[in-house]
Structures are given as structure tokens and as C-alpha cells.
Design a protein that fits this description.
Blueprint: H1 3-11, H2 18-29, H3 35-48, H4 52-63, E1 79-83, H5 92-101, E2 106-110, H6 120-124, H7 136-146, E3 148-152, H8 159-170, H9 177-190, E4 195-202, H10 211-227, E5 231-238, E6 246-247, H11 249-260, H12 266-282, H13 289-302, H14 304-315, E7 334-339, E8 344-349, H15 351-363, E9 377-380, E10 387-388, E11 393-399, H16 402-415, E12 416-419, E13 429-434
Helix pairs in contact: 1-3, 2-4, 2-8, 4-9, 5-12, 5-14, 9-10, 12-13, 15-16
The structure holds uracil (URA).
Uracil binds at residues 84-85, 111, 114, 165, 174, 179-180, 183-184.
Length: 435
């Protein structure tokens, strides 16, 4: 078998066999297949698609490309949460502490930013001293002690996904249902948790644009989980405007802390409580989602969630004082305000463009090896439905490279659409798919 033959077969639209999929996944993981051939196959998959069987086989090959973690020494049901990626989606760092504060064990591996979307690991690295890479024993000890640890995907867990994820990011091959499903589930299955709550983002700021596509992805994710004996719940949630107000690593950490102090934006608070409710249900700490939601709300109001975040930060070498003093987070040297031209109501904020503006300001990578500016990003002063006066600030763009900020500000301005009357709010949660 040669990689040329595999690429050609998929380019012609034929289904790949298990052997061919394993040949590609193992060869690429071991550096025997170069980036240019892997890119060609990804593009052929993007245009030709994978069948359900091929997707299951790809997931399994990627899961087996490294270690499958054994978390059995940590007590209780281990629950993981994953988002398919959005703009301003900082829910992991709110939801995981809330669920852990309610008795659920959260042993989580997170990813970095991908395309216009941010990643939890990059966000966590904005916290001074915070380590996102822990040795296996240290990770397990923290999970046992604090019931929570959030680390980056180690080189041993689904290494095929780690390499392919970075390659897809720079070859415009991210937004394919089968590639997303196999990427998400290979690493979730390999990371050893017992149950998964998956947030499938849907809309302009997500890889899945329509509710129908997102539901299809949610169903596929739940089915892959079930086929592997894991309780899996997928929520399809709205990503037609950025989640919360802040987009960019340190800026989002500040919003996480505000939210855990009950001072966060309404959408992020509601979505976080909803996801935490499902994690608490999946972890067996509640009999129903309503009970889980209620427990999460209590943990938010009592400050138990914030205490858990502090414990997590401290346990991973970070400075928990950031939770009381956000000036300890990286801050940008420059900012540019984006102002409204006319009176009206914010009708739409193109989430994808806000993600791109934040990336352009320095918060995201444009090539695999780019170093990101942790302080960069965009803070919205207006959300959809808000009244706006001409000259008022719609958003502020932050960063350390002044030359990038004017372009980021232009993209931000073009992302705001104003109308003379307020529009009806779209639902935040479109669907819940239970395994
Ligand atoms: N999240 C993932 O983990 N993988 C993808 O491919 C897209 C979003």
C-alpha cells in the first residue's frame, strides 16, 4: 500500500478500508507520511466525505495511536466536557469547577485554539505560572485530591489527533463532520473518562453552521460514545454571536472569574449552568438535569465554584491571586475602540469575524508554530438586542502589536450590524441528544 494510492482512492470518492485508515493514521503519527500527503488526503476527505463506518474506524485508529488512559484509581464516575469550538467559549473553566464542587470528578484534557476559535489550554496559559502539562502521576494525584484537573492533550493521548488537528487548522480542513467527530471522540475515549458532555456549537461562529448539521454531528458523537460503552450527552448550542463579552485568552480568563463571582454575562452563565447540570447528572451526583442545574446554581452562588477554580489553579502551579486581582493577568499595551456610526439596535454580531479579529490582533495562530499574544483580543460592549447610539463604543480591540490592531478593529466594526428595531433573541440551547 502507498499513501499515493490511499489519496487517489479517496479523491475518486471510494470508501477506505480499515487497513488503509490505519496505514494513514499510524504512518502520519510516526512521521513516515509527510504533511503534504496527509494534507492531500484531508482535502480529499473534506470534499468526498467519510461514511459512518469509515468515521468509526478513523476514530478507533486515532484513539489507538497512543495510550488509552486508565483513571480507575480516581474515585467515582469521571466526567469530561468538550466543546466543538466557538468564539468566546470559555465555559470549560466555569463548568468544570462547578461540577467538581458538586462532587463530580473532572479529569479533563483540553485543546488549543483552532482557526477562528479559541482553546482552553491557551486560555489557561494566560494565568501566571499555570502548567497545562502534568506528568501522569501528578495529574492523577490532583484528580484524587481536588476532583479536578484540566491539562493539554499529552503526546501520549491520541497523538494522531494532536498532529492532524494542527495540520487541519492550517489547511482549511477543520469543518468536516467526520473529521470533527473522530477528532473529538478519539481523544475523549483515550483520555479515560466514563462519561462525556459535548457542546456542539452551531452558527456563524462555529464549524457547524446550521442546527441540522450540528444535530447530525451531535448524534454521531453520541453514537460513537455509546458504541464504546460511554454515557454521552450532546447539546447543540447557539454560536451566532460570541459567547459572553470577551474573546481572547487573558480577557476570557477575567470573564471566567467574573462569572464564577456571579457577575458574568447572562448567556455564559446560563450555558455554564446548563452544561454543569448535565455533567452532574452524568456523574451520578443528581437524579435529573433539573437537580443538577440547581446544585450547580448553588455552587455558583455560594462561591464553591470559584474556590474550586482557585484549587485547580494552585494545583497546577498557577497564581490563585488572579481570582482577586485581574491586573495580574497579561494586559495589552494598546487598544482601539470601535464605535457605532448610527443609532439603532445591535441586530447581529458576526461571531466568526470577531474570532478572526481576535486572531488578527494576536490571540490566535495563523500558522502551526505562531506564538500567541495572551493579552490580545476583543471585548464587546454591545450584544445582540442592545440599543446603540451613534459614536458609542461597540467593542474594544486589544493587543501588543499596534500594526495589527487597526485591521482587527476594521474586521470588528464590519462584524456589527445595526437595525432600527430590536430583534427577537435566538434560543441559546437548540437541542439535547442523550445517549
Ligand atoms: N474540536 C476538536 O476536538 N476537534 C475538531 O476537529 C474540532 C473541534
Amino acid at each position: 500500500m502507498t499513501m499515493y494510492d490511499v489519496i487517489l482512492k479517496k479523491r475518486e470518492g471510494a470508501a477506505l478500508s480499515k487497513d488503509e485508515i490505519e496505514y494513514f493514521v499510524n504512518g502520519y503519527t510516526e512521521d513516515a507520511i509527510p504533511d503534504y500527503q496527509a494534507s492531500a488526503l484531508l482535502m480529499a476527505i473534506f470534499f468526498r466525505g467519510l461514511s459512518r463506518d469509515e468515521t468509526f474506524m478513523l476514530t478507533e485508529a486515532m484513539m489507538r495511536s497512543g495510550d488509552v488512559a486508565d483513571l480507575s484509581s480516581a474515585p467515582g464516575v469521571k466526567v469530561d466536557k468538550h466543546s466543538t469550538g466557538g468564539v468566546g467559549d470559555k465555559t470549560t473553566l466555569i463548568v468544570a469547577p462547578l461540577a467538581a464542587a458538586c462532587g463530580v470528578t473532572v479529569a479533563k484534557m483540553s485543546g488549543r485554539g483552532l482557526g477562528f476559535t479559541g482553546g482552553t489550554v491557551d486560555k489557561m496559559e494566560a494565568i501566571p505560572g499555570m502548567r497545562t502539562s502534568l506528568e501522569k502521576d501528578e495529574f492523577t494525584a490532583l484528580v484524587n485530591r481536588a476532583k479536578i484537573s484540566v491539562i493539554g492533550q499529552t503526546g501520549h493521548i491520541a497523538p494522531a489527533d494532536k498532529k492532524l488537528y494542527a495540520l487541519r487548522d492550517v489547511t482549511a480542513t477543520v469543518d468536516n463532520l467526520s473529521l470533527i467527530a473522530s477528532s473529538v471522540m478519539s481523544k475523549k475515549l483515550a483520555s479515560g473518562s466514563d462519561a462525556f458532555v459535548l457542546d456542539v456549537k452551531c452558527g456563524d461562529g462555529a464549524f457547524m453552521r446550521t442546527v441540522r448539521e450540528a444535530e447530525e454531528l451531535g448524534r454521531l458523537l453520541v453514537d460513537i460514545g455509546a458504541a464504546n460503552g460511554k454515557k454521552t450527552i450532546a447539546l447543540v448550542t447557539n454560536m451566532n454571536q460570541p459567547l459572553g463579552k470577551s474573546v481572547g485568552n487573558a480577557l476570557e480568563i477575567a470573564e471566567v472569574i467574573e462569572t464564577l463571582k456571579c457577575e458574568g454575562p447572562e448567556d455564559i452563565t446560563k450555558l455554564s449552568l446548563t452544561l454543569a447540570g448535565y455533567m452532574i447528572l452524568a456523574g451520578g451526583a443528581a437524579e435529573s438535569w433539573d437537580e443538577g442545574y440547581e446544585k450547580a446554581s448553588r455552587a455558583l452562588r455560594s462561591g464553591a465554584g470559584l474556590d474550586k477554580l482557585r484549587e485547580l489553579i494552585k494545583g497546577q502551579g498557577g497564581d490563585p491571586a488572579v481570582t482577586d486581582d485581574s491586573t495580574l493577568l497579561p494586559s495589552a499595551a494598546f487598544s482601539v475602540a470601535v464605535r457605532a456610526d448610527a443609532d439603532g439596535y445591535t441586530d447581529r454580531i458576526a461571531a466568526r469575524d470577531i474570532g478572526l479579529a481576535s486572531q488578527r490582533a494576536g490571540a490566535g495562530r495563523e500558522t502551526k508554530n505562531d506564538v500567541i499574544d495572551l493579552s490580545a483580543g476583543v471585548v464587546l460592549r454591545k450584544k445582540v438586542g442592545d440599543a446603540v447610539k451613534a459614536g458609542e463604543t461597540l467593542a474594544v480591540v486589544y493587543g501588543n502589536d499596534k500594526s495589527k490592531l487597526d485591521e482587527a478593529a476594521e474586521i470588528t466594526k464590519a462584524a456589527f450590524f445595526t437595525e432600527s428595531a430590536p430583534r427577537e433573541q435566538e434560543p441559546l440551547i437548540h437541542a439535547v441528544i442523550m445517549g
